[in-house]
Specification:
Length: 514
């Protein structure tokens, strides 16, 4: 028995038209020149995507996962645990927004290797650049000790081009966890230097002896304040500030550090300003109380926060909340780390998500990875350590990633992909909100900045079913938190791709409603 779909497509189309007209009218108020230029920029970006995107729609030829994937899972499981494996990928056949799996299924990839591919799969300019950099890739320099002669130029033309305002120091790392782990170390160096002065203790001093036994004063009793729902990595120090899923932390010893509540807001944010402001005020008060409570036992040396809590459920807070949080850090003379591992590199409609906040004083440290290709962190001059070997490991990331990042930044600028992310994001959010009205029993709390977008699956236990059904229709999404789905597409994701996504979401919602 088939469920007859309700007569609502015309309504949805009408609401799309209304939203489009509203956008046009808004642009008109800003001037016809702005309207023309915005339209031209958007058209240019979409044209570039059409040329690159070899596949035009999803194509599913087997169940997902298919027989070849199941065979590979069995082979791999004999070697290591495969509980986290979703798909085996055919990277040679994958193109920009489409991932091809081991069974030949072409999937519209709205997750992009967990938000790690800024330009999608096999962008020709990135492939060409990789081939031209074979020597640096094969040599894999120990960057902390033997960098190549063009290393300063690489840093200048890649990472420093994208540097957040006010931060002109940068160090590379292998991944986001490594970035946060070493950012925490740098924060502690800075805090202790402020306590005792510039110079390190002399050799033979009690601090040198005690640190080798993990005891104060050489190993001081300090802490970093983090937030419920936050995710900052799975290495030992970073894990003590991660609070998204118990499975990450179970059985692992942790530092005794304070955890503050992150605001639990209602969406859309603009419809609940008063009550959300009250919730944010409550959380800010707890932050100040914790700093005071811990000052005599394990002083808070700094705090770490994501502009949007990603793994914890795509949880948002207002720009004002973050401004006030930064002011609390400044007032208490503690460091302020902004974790932009997921939100960095244009996906939110800004180069850095904290650009939205309008800070008077920038973060002290901004960590990055994912779409930035290389891991690492930016920091202010005050946080620069004074002695060698303080933040160091053999590889300190890979210089080939800087070569590729230089090309990525060229393309992002030439094709105005930051602008495209903002505009396509509006299109997707508006479309999902229309579907939320149609299927309130399934979809709720649509939220996003740029293409950093999420929605809640309202009914308990239905999220996994929803995601699996979409996958069978050729659309790959991510999940986060307890009941959220999330989008992390490439910067070449356009309204044309959004239409495919929205159609498949509507189709899936109708099936589940039946």
């Amino acid at each position: 028995m088939h469920c007859k779909p309700p007569e609502i497509s015309a309504v949805l189309l009408f609401e799309y038209a209304i939203n489009y007209v509203k956008t046009i009218l808004t642009e008109i108020t800003l001037g016809w020149s702005s309207l023309y230029n915005s339209g031209l920029r958007f058209q240019q970006a979409q044209t570039a995507t059409k040329v690159l995107d070899e596949y035009k729609k999803p194509e599913v030829i087997t169940e997902v996962p298919g027989p070849e994937t199941k065979k590979l899972l069995k082979e791999t499981d004999a070697i290591q645990n495969t509980g986290a494996v979703s798909l085996f990928c055919d990277f040679e056949k994958s193109k920009i927004n489409y991932l091809v799996d081991a069974d030949g299924n072409k999937l519209l990839d709205c997750f992009q290797q967990i938000s790690s591919l800024p330009l999608g799969y096999n962008h020709p300019a990135i492939l060409e650049q990789s081939l031209q950099s074979a020597a640096i890739m094969a040599s894999r320099p120990a960057l902390a000790y033997f960098p190549s002669k063009d290393f300063p130029r690489l840093i200048k033309n890649s990472l420093l081009r994208a540097a957040p305002s006010g931060l002109d120091q940068v160090v590379t790392m292998a991944c986001g966890s490594c970035a946060n782990e070493n950012a925490y170390k740098s924060l502690f160096f800075w805090y202790m230097r402020n306590q005792r002065g510039e110079e390190l203790p002399v050799m033979g001093d009690e601090a040198f002896i005690s640190c080798m036994k993990n005891q104060p004063p050489g190993s001081p009793k300090l802490s970093i304040l983090s937030f419920d729902g936050g995710f900052h990595g799975r290495t030992l120090g970073a894990l003590s500030t991660t609070h998204s899923k118990p499975i990450h932390k179970l059985d692992v010893p942790a530092f005794d550090w304070p955890t503050a509540p992150f605001p639990k807001l209602k969406y859309p944010l603009e419809d609940h300003e008063k009550e959300n402001a009250q919730e944010e005020a409550r959380c800010l008060a707890v932050v100040e109380d914790l700093i005071e409570q811990w000052k005599d036992t394990r002083p808070v040396a700094g705090m770490v926060i994501e502009p949007i809590q990603a793994e914890g459920g795509d949880n948002h807070a207002s720009d004002d909340f973050f401004r006030k949080l930064r002011n609390i850090a400044t007032k208490n003379k503690i460091g302020f780390i902004c974790d932009e591992v997921q939100t960095g590199m244009a996906i939110t409609g800004r180069m850095w998500a904290h650009d939205y906040w309008g800070l008077e004083t920038p973060p002290d440290i901004v960590t990055f990875a994912k779409k930035m290709l290389s891991g690492g962190f930016y920091y202010s001059d005050d946080f620069r350590w004074k002695h060698g070997y303080r933040v160091v490991n053999t590889w300190m990331g890979e210089p080939i990633k800087l070569v590729l990042l230089e090309k990525v930044l060229d393309i992002v600028k030439e094709q105005d992909l930051v602008f495209q992310a903002e505009n396509t994001g509006h299109y997707v959010v508006n479309g999902l909100r229309q579907l939320e009205k149609m299927f309130p029993e399934l979809l709720s709390a649509i939220r996003g900045r740029g293409m950093f977008i999420a929605a809640d699956i309202t009914e308990a236990g239905k999220r996994e079913t929803f995601v699996k059904k979409l996958l069978q229709k050729g659309v790959l999404l991510g999940v986060c938190g307890d009941h959220s789905i999330r989008l992390r597409p490439s910067l070449f994701f356009t309204p044309a791709h959004a239409d495919i996504l929205l159609d498949k979401v509507e189709e899936t919602a109708r099936e589940m409603k039946c």
